[in-house]
Amino acid sequence: MRTLKAGREKRRAWERAHRAKNVEKYRAKCRQYYWANPEKGRTRARAWYAENQEQATRKWREKRLENLEYHSARVRQWNRDNPGHASAYNAKRRHRLLDGRSRGVKAEEWTAIKEYFCDLCAYCLHPLRLERDHVESLDRGGLDEPDNIVPACKSCNCSKGKASLIEWMRRGGRVTRAFLPANVGVVRAA
Ligand SMILES: [Zn+2]
Fold this sequence. Notes:
The chain is mostly helical and about 190 residues long.
C-alpha cells in the first residue's frame, strides 16, 4: 500500500515538473482538446464564469486598462472589418438623439461639464478618455441634454450600459461621492 501511494506521488511530482517544463506543449494540447470538443469547453467556461463573474470582470478590466492601446486598436480594426455594424449602430443612435425630444449638447456645454467634473470620470475619477454618459440612458427616455450628461470613462460607460444609476450601483457600479445627481443641474445654470 505504502509503495503504491509513494509511487503515485512520485508520478504526480514528475507530471508537475514535466508540465512546468513544457508549458507551451500542454497549452497546445489543451487548445487542441478544446477545439475538438468546443461545446464541452464552452459549457465549462460558462459554468466557471457564472461562479467567478466578479473576479473575471475585474481581471478583464485590469488587463484592458494595461493594454488600452492594443484593445482600442482591435476595436478599430473590428469596425473596419465590419463596416455595416458600426455605422448601423451609429445611425440608430443618431436617430434616437435627433428624435425631436432632445436639443442636444453643444461643444462648449460639453467642455463646461468636463471642467465641472475636473476632467475626470464622474464615476471612478480616472482621467481616462472621457465620453458623454447619459445618466438616464436614451433607451429609458433620458434626454441628450446637459442636465443628463456626465463625463465617464469608456469602462464605466460600458459597464453602466442601459442600467439606471441605482441598478448599476447594485451591480457594483463605481458611483463615487463626487457624483451627486444634484451637481448635474448646476452645470447648465453656470
Ligand atoms: Zn470611470
